[in-house]
Amino acid sequence: MGNVSRDARLTFIQLWTLADDEGRLRGNSRMLASLLFPYDDGEDGHALTTAKDVERWLVELEREGCIVRYQIDGAAYMQICNWLIHQKIDKPSKSKIPPFDESSRILAKPREVSSEEGIKDQGEEGKGEDQFVERRGASHDVDVVKTIFEYWQKIMVSPRAQLDDKRKKAIKTALKLYEPRQLCEAILGCSKSDFHMARGEYLGQQKHNGLGLIFRDADHIDKFIGLASKQATGPESIEQRNARILAELMAEDATSAIDPDVIDVDMEEVEHAS
Fold first, then answer.
1. pLDDT tens per residue across span 211-258
2. What separation in angstroms does the CA of 235 have from each of 35, 181, 190, 238?
3. What is the 3-state secondary structure (H, E, C) of the chain?
4. Distance (Å, rounded) from C-alpha 76 to C-alpha 70?
5. What are the φ/ψ torsions at residue 56 (nearest 5 degrees)?
6. Model-level pTM greater than 0.70?
7. Is residue 82 within 8 Å of residue 22, measured between CB atoms?
8. For 120-152, what is each residue's pLDDT tens digit?
9. End-to-end Cα spacing for the chain
C-alpha cells in the first residue's frame, strides 16, 4: 500500500463497506464518488471529490493488484483481490454479481458518460469544470438507477417489484437534482412514515410508498430526507449515518421477510385514489 497515495488507501478501505461476501461490487466511478465521499461535495468547507478523482485512485489500486475491474453486458464491476485476507465472513451469502473473467477485464478507462451530452470522457483531460455540477444534468448510468431501485425494494420489502420504464423515469428525473445517497435517504424516510407505510393508526389503509410518489418533486424528496434524519434512533455521527446507509444499500435480501401485502403505489394511483 506504500506505492499508492493516501486517497487511494482510503478508497480501498471504503470499498470493503460496499463489497458483498465474495468481495465483489459495482465499479462505476461516478456512483462510487457519491457513495464513498458523499460529503466531499465542495460545500461547507468540504473538498470536492469527483468521479475523475475516484477513477485515478482506482487506477492506482488496480496497478498494485489490490482490485481488478471488469465489464459484463455493459455494466462495470470490481473484485477486491485476496478478499478473505481483509475480511472474515461468517456464513457468507453467494454473490449476485457475476465473477471476474480475464476476457471481461477493463483494459482502458471506462467511458461512463456520453460525450453527446457535452460531458468529457474520463480518459480526456478536464478543463476545470465543476464535475459535481456536470453530472447532475448527465444521463445516469444503469448501475446507479438499478442500485437505487434495489435499495427501495429492500427497504419496502417488495422483492417482486420490477424496474419498469415508469420507475426508471422517476429515478432518472430525481437524479438530475439529487445525489444517489440523498435519494436513498428519501426512500428510508418514507419507510419511517406510519401514514405512507399504513402502520399504527393507519393500519389497514393503502400504502403510499411508490417511487413515483417519493420522487414526485423536490418538496417530497426533501420532506422524506427530513423524516429519515428525524427518525434516527440515538445519537448518530455523520460517519455512522453514512456507514448505515451504505450497509443498508448493499445488504443481501436473503434474510428479509416477504410481505405479501406490499403495494407499490405511484403518483398517478395516489392522485386517482384521492
1. 999 999 988 998 898 888 665 445 555 555 555 555 555 544 333 343
2. 22, 20, 21, 10
3. CCCCCHHHHHHHHHHHHHCCCCCEEECCHHHHHHHHCCCCECCCCCCECCHHHHHHHHHHHHHCCCEEEEEECCEEEEEECCHHHHCCCCCCCCCCCCCCCHHHECCCCCCCCCHHHCCCCCCCCCCCCCHHHHCCCCCCCHHHHHHHHHHHHHHCCCCCCCCCHHHHHHHHHHHCCCCHHHHHHHHHHHHCCHHHHCCHHHCCCCCCCCHHHHCCCHHHHHHHHHHHHHCCCCCCCHHHHHHHHHHHHHCCCCCCCCCCCCCCCCHHHHHHHC
4. 6
5. -65, -40
6. no
7. no
8. 333 333 333 333 233 333 344 567 888 899 889
9. 59
Residue with cell 420522487: 215
Q: Which residue has the cell 426533501?
A: 222
Location of C-alpha cell 438507477: 145
